[in-house]
Design goal:
By secondary structure, the protein is α/β, with parallel strands linked by helices. It has one domain: TIM Barrel (Alpha-Beta Barrel), CATH 3.20.20. The two termini are about 20 Å apart.
């Protein structure tokens, strides 16, 4: 995407200030991969001065370079996306042989007292073979593993028979472990559990099997400044274009929130088994942000 179409660091800061004025208290940088964005250091430093919890989601490959910046700007929590703990499977999924580097970076985060959540997309044929490996990580490490039901987006080859539901995973884990349900925060997207005696936790994001649209308060701003009120919605409002034209954007932000569909961006509300992925109108996941 041409540089002039992207929000520049000072624009990100000024637009973020408007969201904060409207009550936003948490900002997450995501992608794609946010840590390859030119000028990401400046973006983090600018956002860190705002009265918000600042965090990010990353593939973890470049974390070592940014540890000092995270500590200086008060970032205390990072999400790392890993869909397999087997280096050969990881390399097949990501087309990059970087698993060991990422695993070392996760330990580096923990050593620097940065909370680590691991995001794992549960895809049939993969997760069944690794579910216990992920759960076992929480035994001796204060990691928070989040299993995400496989969601349909443009170009991700989604099929309903690839979805492994949270209930199916809970039933599998419960065969070998004593699971206790933890209290979820207001508007939480993840349902949290803990294995008795383990340091860390596990959680399930039940987007497909148990929708939580009525509680979701997430808003997304794409790299080119389009506001999406739902991760599945095709509707976008051009916040960056209005900002550059000198048009007040508070009204547009409110308009976007008010227009939010009752569930699933208005695209599939009859259950995931009836979704036709070819009819979905949306960006790819890397353009939306997790």
């Amino acid at each position: 995407m041409p540089e002039e179409k992207l929000m520049q660091p000072f624009e990100i800061e000024e637009i973020a200030k408007v969201f904060v004025d409207l009550g936003v208290n948490k900002i997450r940088l995501t992608g794609g991969e946010p840590l390859i964005r030119p000028g990401v250091e400046e973006i983090i430093e600018r956002l860190a001065i705002l009265p918000v919890e600042l965090t990010l989601t990353t593939n973890g490959a470049r974390l070592r370079k940014f540890i000092g910046l995270f500590k200086n700007t008060g970032i205390t929590s990072v999400n790392v996306s890993i869909d397999s703990l087997k280096p050969e499977v990881f390399a097949h999924i990501t087309r990059r042989d970087t698993f060991r580097q990422i695993w070392e970076n996760i330990h580096l985060l923990l050593e620097n007292n940065i909370r680590v959540k691991i995001n794992t997309v549960a895809i049939s044929g993969v997760i069944e073979n690794e579910l216990f490996n992920f759960v076992n990580l929480t035994r001796n490490l204060p990691l928070h593993i989040r299993f995400i039901e496989f969601m349909p987006f443009s170009g991700n080859h989604w099929k309903n028979n690839k979805v492994v539901t949270a209930q199916q995973m809970i039933e599998i884990v419960s065969r070998d472990y004593d699971l206790v349900k933890l209290k979820d925060e207001p508007h939480a997207t993840a349902k949290k559990y803990k294995v008795i005696g383990h340091q860390g936790t596990i959680a399930f994001i039940t987007t497909m099997s148990d929708q939580f649209c009525g509680e979701c308060n997430r808003m997304r701003l794409t790299a080119d400044g389009k506001m999406k009120n739902c991760i599945f919605g095709k509707d976008e409002i051009d916040i960056l274009g209005a900002y550059r034209a000198g048009v007040p954007i508070k009204t547009l932000i409110r308009e976007s929130v008010i227009k939010k569909h009752e569930a699933m961006g208005g695209q599939f509300i009859n259950g995931y088994r009836k979704i036709n992925p070819e009819k979905i109108e949306n960006r790819s996941m890397i353009q939306i942000g997790g």
